[in-house]
Design goal:
- With about 140 residues, this protein is of the alpha+beta class.
- It is about 30% helix and about 35% strand.
- It folds into 2 domains: about 30 residues, no CATH class; about 100 residues, K homology (KH) domain (GMP Synthetase, Chain A, domain 3).
- α1 packs across α2.
- The longest helix is centred in the middle third of the chain and has 23 residues.
- This is OsmC family protein.
- It comes from Imbroritus primus.
């Protein structure tokens, strides 16, 4: 896996990242840090990547468990250290999983498997952050 990140120049703190799979993502800093607030912050990208990683796992595990899953949303709330390096210190994952006749214990197990075994991003972040989750199951 590889990517390239390029600074867009002296007019701010905007960067363009190109992934090894050929996709482009913009990042920017906050105005108080010299940015123009034109795109997500790099640490927001880390957080959203973690949400994508775990949501992907949960849906895949539920499908393989023959659950009739129709939707999965993960909202992440994170706290960061006050001093540099401002690592994440606490992350709460709020899962909303929609489907027909979903078994709560199967959904819980999918979330746990993601956090403990499959989601590389959340496993890395767990080295510095306390992790927890909530779950809401919505009947379709």
């Amino acid at each position: 896996m590889e990517c390239k990140v390029s600074w867009m120049g002296p007019q701010g703190m905007s960067f363009i990242a190109e992934t090894g799979s050929g996709h482009i993502v913009a990042m920017d800093g906050a105005p108080e840090g010299g940015g123009n607030n034109l795109a997500p912050r790099p640490m927001e990208m880390v957080l959203l990547g973690t949400g994508g990683c775990t949501a992907y796992d949960v849906v895949l595990i539920l499908k393989r468990s023959r659950q009739d899953v129709l939707g999965c949303t993960v909202r992440l709330e994170a706290e960061r250290a006050g001093e540099d390096p401002k690592v994440f210190t606490r992350i709460v994952f709020h899962f909303t999983v929609t489907g027909r006749n979903l078994k709560r214990e199967t959904v819980e197990r999918a979330i746990q498997l993601s956090h403990d075994k499959y989601c590389s991003a959340s496993i890395m972040l767990a080295k510095s952050a306390e992790m927890s989750h909530t779950l809401e199951i919505v009947e379709a």
